[in-house]
From TrEMBL, chains A, B, C, D:
<feature type="domain" description="Adenylosuccinate lyase C-terminal">
    <location>
        <begin position="353"/>
        <end position="435"/>
    </location>
</feature>
<keyword id="KW-0175">Coiled coil</keyword>
<keyword id="KW-0658">Purine biosynthesis</keyword>
<dbReference type="InterPro" id="IPR024083">
    <property type="entry name" value="Fumarase/histidase_N"/>
</dbReference>
<dbReference type="InterPro" id="IPR020557">
    <property type="entry name" value="Fumarate_lyase_CS"/>
</dbReference>
<dbReference type="InterPro" id="IPR000362">
    <property type="entry name" value="Fumarate_lyase_fam"/>
</dbReference>
<dbReference type="Pfam" id="PF00206">
    <property type="entry name" value="Lyase_1"/>
</dbReference>
<protein>
    <recommendedName>
        <fullName>Adenylosuccinate lyase</fullName>
        <ecNumber>4.3.2.2</ecNumber>
    </recommendedName>
</protein>
<comment type="pathway">
    <text>Purine metabolism; IMP biosynthesis via de novo pathway; 5-amino-1-(5-phospho-D-ribosyl)imidazole-4-carboxamide from 5-amino-1-(5-phospho-D-ribosyl)imidazole-4-carboxylate: step 2/2.</text>
</comment>
<comment type="similarity">
    <text>Belongs to the lyase 1 family. Adenylosuccinate lyase subfamily.</text>
</comment>
<dbReference type="InterPro" id="IPR019468">
    <property type="entry name" value="AdenyloSucc_lyase_C"/>
</dbReference>
<dbReference type="InterPro" id="IPR004769">
    <property type="entry name" value="Pur_lyase"/>
</dbReference>
<feature type="coiled-coil region">
    <location>
        <begin position="118"/>
        <end position="178"/>
    </location>
</feature>
<keyword id="KW-0456">Lyase</keyword>
<dbReference type="Pfam" id="PF10397">
    <property type="entry name" value="ADSL_C"/>
</dbReference>
<dbReference type="InterPro" id="IPR008948">
    <property type="entry name" value="L-Aspartase-like"/>
</dbReference>
<comment type="pathway">
    <text>Purine metabolism; AMP biosynthesis via de novo pathway; AMP from IMP: step 2/2.</text>
</comment>
Length: 439, 439, 439, 439
């Protein structure tokens, strides 16, 4: 976790105190059910909850000190609770194993993190949608291979991003559902020393589903799927970030990250306005992607479990969630305040001497009976002259002067092919697909 | 693609001929709809389908030869079709761009591959289930950290694998749904030169959903999610493979890959029977995981598209699908014919002098009123003696001889704690959760 | 391996026949030394080499057929050789294990592949150097964050690439040295049944170093380092490819991949000239990077060895080497024939109204006694006006009209700061560092 | 960074204060040289060093506060220094760019980290060597595929690990050399506003080499190579960790991590002694490997630089170095205190009824004139009986009773083949190769 790329609400989920609080809740709910089942006195859970109702400070250093001797984190915590609650605490954790607590807690943390990330996505989607509608009909050149192709609108670019992040949201919702399971199944998952009813009870109380079969641990394919999903979302963040970085290039300059008063772009070059937020997001996306790898390697634990996954998750649990939360929020801010320059978009589009209309001419020629190969040749020979003139020659002029072309296509029909609005007649259809009919 | 790790049905999907066949179908369906819309003569599609009905051989070398000049694969193919069909063929591909064909075709290939993989998973699940039911109550030791913990059954191990691959199947079904979209939206995805109705028609004919918004290409977050999902499945394959490799170790030898007559384990050591299939699967899992990475890096294409994803997909499209298909089938065979040795499982379990029952004694002591800390100390001091005797001493004997223990727990109650069946009372519950109530 | 991304010389190294040839050589050399040591008759090696001198066709299908029964590739090969050579062949492989042959052979293949890759790098370096010298003083704008910064020369860009690939060459030479070892140490690497002198002899004959300690297999950290090194080289390929893709963007167009007559850029848009080779290289770089991952996971084989690395290496051995060979050659071609447009470079540089000189003015002001903060403020307020004018205003004009500026710096000194040559005074120094003093 | 996996000396290198200290030194040395060159007053550097001699506290919160407004870290730091040093500070940073400071500082941090890691490797190597010599002739079974193969010694296992980590040390030394470069080349690396002599001077003072050609930034292929090298080292850590985890398995138990008094293995099962340190190392190895990926993706920065690498390096710079330092130290402790059980090794070796000697019998038969195929068949048919008896039958007994065997090989020669010492005759050779002649 890098503090500058962390926001408080998400970070709080991953702090030791939050973790201990969830531990306690899991243990206390389990003790409650054990009491109801007659396995332990009902007074035990009451004692625990009574103490909890006093809103006790979680004394992390004290717990750490116990762990330094016992070399076992859950035992250390239970000892500390017992020190505070007294004799009734000895009924805690009956028939349970540490992993019951640890894995269920991790599930709670990942589910809560998912909830924040889902909200982040909602805000990002809202920002993208607002800007998409604002620029629904702002013409801009579509580029394939970085080369001018045909016109699109800036709203269409954003509609694409909206659809992509909407898919990300669905994927995250699915990943959240997969990860939110509770296992209280004892030493090797057989429920030998604890009734399955305890698991069901704790699951319900903690807002989780029951893990159908655990082997002391919750199987790590669930976590692999979770972090792989975050990695895919990171890819989509990178895509939009790279798009903005491209648009802000000096030669393009169709959009810019908001540049606040007082900001300095470069210590050496005062004129610089750099797309540093989206570059920063590009790097963060690389990290979030990388975190999926050890999660994938964690799946193949030995037999009923080993603990190699644990050190990995101490890193990637917080780091992936915190960084993604930060990145989504940062991207939302970038989109929200993005400076968009429609005039520049128009200027760029016009610089190619009308080459972007070449396909329409090609189609018109074939529709007028010219063979595809001949049409291609006719258009290309004129297009290449325009290309090589670096915008000085206009395609329409050259075509009008090419007798082989005009033999097939009258001049007025040629001119019709250079109309910009022609390209936007289905923008509404696409918006309706992406944002719903009311869009 | 490594031929020895490839099966014919899956490989066929990825051969050039299959690809060209799908190309043709996409083009012909599109031409048909363009005819219905009056954009091209209806005779065009008829000419195409008439030729197709003659079941023409796809002349791959001829197409390659054209591509060598044109340096464009789709143009080469269209030229070859035109050479065969004649004049009517010039109406093909009207208003379309190469990516419309390429991306829709890739979607078909990935969807068909998914169908095979889903069948593979069904067969794997069936094999696991059969063996799970066969060994529902075969006792074996559960191990955490590679160390004996408490008893489980071999059926439970397999039930866990079943639940895991069942999740994999759901994930793959979701990934298939995501990947199976059709885009026929023209040069930069605006439908400027092609009616969205064509896309809808081709989608329906090819069994795909409509891509809501494309930018010449189908967005690559879909493919990233697809290959990430295959990577997670690979993790689960590795897990079961590693389990079997562990069980076949000389010192464990609780199960073995089937060893056919005539097979030689080692050119130097004739006695060797090695778990080579599951080791092989472990390596294949590493490859399938690796293929997810470039798919994740493919998401951030430049602007409306660049073509950097294409070379990646020429590798990972076939390699990931073909290898996963092979791996699932190989794993199914391993599970199906796995030699299982219940007697050896029992022998291994007994070698620890009853230490595996220590937790039950611990619980009994606390339930009898001993503090958790004292109970732990009492059990541990006897357990450590057994441990150090390497199976020569029996825990039950030592406990009976420990007056502090017997003061809390009568000898007959102590003996009760060493009953194996006690651990299996919830096997049925777990099986019902995994396989359904009828299990 | 994707045939379209493969060149014959590299591919040949990885074909079954080449592999079997190396197997034979390893076995025959070993038999020769075993003969000299008196372990087997000297006639055995003679019989092998006599047969070899007849230049026998390697009958791959026959060997495959034997393997289908024996399920062991080395035994299958030895059987086939014995079928051809006769009785003397039974002395082959005495005291050896399959891995002795397989791992030594892989070392030979990787060393030979390295030799080709080193030649590829030499050719790439030569092409870069030639173009660097050609454009040593071709002015072009340096860009940080995609934003114009200060002038560089196109030769400097290429000098940087040269230095980077020169480092890659050194890394590859080191990786080659690490990977080129011979192990003939028997079943578990103890030389129990084979004299270390055999290993030394075969190593020398095959051009390898002796593996100091093997455990049946050559340790896989060597291979991990090898493939990780290829991954770093892929990163450098991507960097230069991305640079060219940026330069070819419509708005930049300072350089272009060579566009051959007859080539079609787009089936739909005849005017397109796309940087498809460098996009293609970008994708290949992703693949080569990905192949490093399973190589890293291969290191931790179980005990003296398991065989999980083998399936991985059947993929990445050929795929990484063949693809990198292809990529280096393709990049060499791109650099060699790159169309460079110095005029456009100059035009782009001038479009910012002289903003690129802002730092020099800043320095001049501070040297003239203005505090750094004030100087920054003075330059920035004028720079921002130029920036917002989109090239219509000139920085020099504005500064001349700013009394606070001219109070500190006379107009002629201001003008001095806008001299382009000023930036190139150390180009020679850098070239000497990169290419040597004679450059 | 996870505090529990961090050691103070390494962590200190990566704390903000350490970073600022290096920043200051770089700036002050540069100012000193600029003074000597007459570009700035010589008094400037004196003022800086005088202040530095007062050992000022680096006021991190104050610098952060300035950055919060300026949104630029280097400017914030320079401002803070100027606030402390006074007017002379305005001569700092003349002609430099932020990256000159940042990248040179990162080089210093990575070089210092490398020095710690090299020391870590020295200590690990010393521990491994000590234990290798201790167990040079401790017999233990060699295992391929997890299956008993032939005898080795425990010292040989460790000699292999020694050789592997010795290679890692050489790789790290090479990576350190590559990463330790200084760039003070100004805005886009042209030295337009700063003499190359400044770079040379600072490089020498900071213990770095000169970067031959930089583009504002030090090229990131250097960093990619550095982190890839750490990833390879992580692989070797995992290998040794996995070996120990295997040896500690209940059924094997040939070695154990040291288990300290007071340690609790399991909250539920008091008898457990788990290899948690090596499992923990396995997970850490996964993380260190993962950090190489974004470093590889960082290579292809745009044009002269973008800043996407920066956020990545804020994570992986500290996280990879700190975690690897911790892992190496932890592994050293594990090796140093490893409990080794030679008697158990012997017991395990003997459990196979002498099957491990099968190859020697095979060889003896072929040397006695039996064809390889017949010899294999004779040995295998007896070996399989032993195998199936689970150690109850002895191979030597069965061979003596097989007339086809004794027809070829007299009984006393058969018995000779079952001598353990035979396998260790080259241990000395291997030790000399690994540890040098004096070993």
């Amino acid at each position: 976790m890098v503090p500058r790329y962390a926001r408080p609400a998400m970070t709080a989920i991953w702090e030791p105190e939050a973790r201990y609080r969830i531990w306690f809740e899991v243990e206390a709910h389990a003790t409650e059910k054990l009491g109801a089942l007659g396995v332990v006195p009902e007074s035990a859970a009451r004692a625990l909850w009574d103490w909890w109702a006093t809103d006790p400070v979680i004394d992390v250093p004290a717990i750490d000190a116990i762990e330094a001797v016992a070399k076992h984190d859950v035992i250390a915590f239970l000892t500390w609770v017992a020190d505070n609650v007294g004799e009734q605490a000895r009924f805690m954790h009956q028939g349970m194993t540490s992993s019951d607590v640890l894995d269920t807690t991790l599930a709670v943390q990942l589910a809560r993190s998912s909830d924040i990330l889902l909200e982040d996505l909602d805000q990002l989607l809202a920002a993208i949608r607002r800007r998409a509608e604002e620029h629904k009909y702002t013409p801009t050149i579509g580029r394939s291979h970085g080369i001018h192709a045909e016109p699109v609108t800036f709203g269409l670019k954003l509609a694409q991003a909206y659809a992509e992040f909407d898919r990300c949201k669905k994927r995250l919702a699915a990943a959240r559902e997969e990860i939110a399971t509770c296992a209280i199944s004892g030493a090797v998952g057989t429920f030998a020393n604890i009734d399955p009813a305890v698991e069901e009870y704790v699951a319900e109380k903690m807002g989780l589903a029951v893990e159908p079969v655990s082997t002391q641990v919750i199987p790590r394919d669930r976590h692999a799927m979770f972090f792989a999903t975050l990695a895919v979302i990171a890819g989509s963040i990178e895509r939009l970030a790279v798009e903005i970085r491209h648009l802000q290039r000096t030669e393009v300059l169709e959009a810019e990250e908001y540049f606040s008063p007082g900001q300095k772009g470069s210590s050496a070059m005062p004129h610089k306005r750099n797309p540093i937020l989206t570059e920063n997001l590009t790097g963060q996306a690389r990290m979030i992607r990388a975190y999926a790898l050890p999660a994938l390697e964690n799946v193949a634990l030995w037999h009923e479990r080993d603990i190699s996954h644990s050190s990995v998750e101490r890193f990637i649990g917080p780091d992936a969630c915190i960084t993604l939360d930060f990145a989504l929020a940062r991207l939302t801010g970038v989109v929200d305040k993005l400076l968009v320059y429609p005039e520049r978009m128009r200027k760029n589009m016009d610089r190619m001497g009308g080459l972007i209309h070449s396909q329409r001419v090609l189609l018109a020629l074939t529709q007028a009976g010219v063979s595809r190969e001949d049409a291609y040749r006719l258009v290309q020979r004129n297009a290449m002259k325009v290309w090589e003139s670096d915008g000085a020659l206009m395609l329409l002029d050259l075509l009008k002067a090419d007798p082989e072309v005009t033999a097939a296509l009258p001049v007025d029909e040629l001119e019709d092919r250079f109309d910009l609005e022609y390209h936007f007649k289905h923008v509404d259809t696409i918006f309706a697909r992406v944002f719903g009919e009311a869009a």
